[in-house]
C-alpha cells in the first residue's frame, strides 16, 4: 500500500494495452513464420519471416488499438448505479451524466443522504433519477426495477449497464466477527448483488449491455484482519466469471474492476470512527476465554492495523473511476480491469507465482 505522503503513478492503462496487444503480436509472429516457410518452400518469394512479422504487426496492433478505443454513444442509453452514497458511486454518476447517459442513482438510505442527493441534483441534468435502493431489500429491488423499466429513454430496448458500487467493509480477525455482522456483510457484498443482477438481467439482455462488478485485489491476496472481505470479493469474482460465460450467448458483457487494497479499505468507508467502534463491539462480544487467549495487547495492535486502512488522506479514485467509465462506455470492454499501484501488482504476482512460504516471509508480518 502506498504511503500517505506519496502517490504512485497509475500505469494500469499500459498494462491494459499490453494485455490487448499480446495475443495479436503472438499471432502475427506465428503467421509470419508459416507464410515465410510456405513462400520459400514453393519458391514464390524469398521474403523473410521478420519482414512479414513487421507488416502483420503494424496491421494487427493498429487494428487492436482502434478496437480498444471504440466507445458507444450515450444518447438513449440508461445506467443503474448502486451505492451512490459512496465516493466512487457519486463520482461515477456525475461523469456519466455529463456524457449524456440517463443515470439511475441508487442510494442505500435516501433519508440519511438528503444533502448529497440535493447536491447531486443541483449539478446534474434532468436525465438523472435518484432512487431509494437498499440491495438487501427485495421490496427496494423490485420497486426500482418497475421505476427503471417505466422511465427508460425513448427508444431504449433495455438497460445499458448495471454498475455495482455498493459495498460494506468488514474488518477484524475471522474468529472475532459475530454472526450478525457476518450475515450483513454477506447480504450486501454478495447476496444483494447477485439478487439485483438476477432481477435486472432481462433488461440488460434486451439492450445487449453489461454488468460491472467492483471487486478487489484482496480477492487474490490473503490478508489478516480482512479475511471476510477477501472471501466475499473472491466469491464475487468467481460468480462474475461464471456469469460472463453464461451471458456470452446473449451478447452481454460482464466486467470485473479489481481495485487496490487502499481504495477498497478507505473509499467505501464514510465513517472511520464507526468502523473502529464496530471492531470494539466485536471484541466485547467474544467469550472471556477467547479474549484471554488473544490478549488486550494483540487487540490494540489490530486496532492500529485497522487505522492504517481507514485514516489519512482520502484515497485517489482517479484510476478507479477511469476504469469504471471504460467498463461502461467502451464498445469492447476488457473482461477485467486492475487499477492498482505498481507495488500492489507486484505483490499479486508474487502471491501467484512464488512458493507460499517465501511470499509469507516477504509480505506477512
Automatic annotation (TrEMBL):
Database matches in SUPFAM superfamilies: NAD(P)-binding Rossmann-fold domains
Transmembrane segments: 21-44, 50-67
Top-level taxonomic group: Eukaryota
MF annotations from Gene Ontology: oxidoreductase activity
UniProt keyword Hydrolase present: no
Keyword annotations from UniProtKB, A to Z: Membrane, Transmembrane, Transmembrane helix
GO BP: any one term: steroid metabolic process
Protein name stated in the entry: D-beta-hydroxybutyrate dehydrogenase, mitochondrial
Organism: Atta cephalotes
Classification lineage: Eukaryota, Metazoa, Ecdysozoa, Arthropoda, Hexapoda
The gene coding this protein: 105617039
